[in-house]
Amino acid sequence: MKYTLNAKIALLAIGCVIHLTSCASDGFETWKTEITCDQQRFSITSFCKPSSDSYTMNTCQGEQLLAKEGQAPRVLPLAETKAINKRLRATYWECQKVGNVSYLKVNYAAGLGNHEDEEAIEFYDLQINPINDKSQRKKIIQTGQSINEGRVKSLMPD
Question: Which of 67, 115, 128, 129 has the alpha carbon at shortest distance from 87?
Fold first, then answer.
């Protein structure tokens, strides 16, 4: 019976980190950024430890993107983006409209510098499916109209 209880406690602890619920430890907090893009509501949840001053980056362990209640969240960033730099975290979002279709743009940073391996961008449709086609991404960048935007509470200090 003791083994079963310990196993349940371990699974609960893992679930807190994976699902970024209200579990806080070692100073880490759950921060939720609400987003609206063409009538669709999203949230990006970040699990971070706030820095002690406005000149130091916050320490973040993970992020998730959620479009609808009951839908499985998407871990951010995608594996392809994470391969650029494992420290990348969402810092900014923007709703881009191309014709009648809207896309969510998520900007990532790993630090305060402007190095190629410390910044990345991902695009998602309104069902949080990633846009991986390079020509489609290029079209969004070149012709997209920004209709809503904001900061993601995560890596960057307040």
Answer: 115
Judge whether 102 and 119 are in contact, CB under 8 Å: no
Read off the pTM: 0.81
Strands of the sheet containing 29-37, edge to edge, are 29-37, 40-49, 59-66, 74-76
Q: Give the integer Cα–Cα distance in Å for 48 and 24.
A: 9
Residue 118 DSSP symbol:
G
**CB of 32 within 8 A of CB of 154?**
no
Residue 77: asked if its preceding bond is cis (omega within 30°), the reply is yes
* pLDDT band, residue 18 (cuts 50/70/90): very low
pLDDT band at 3 (very low <50, low <70, confident <90, very high): very low
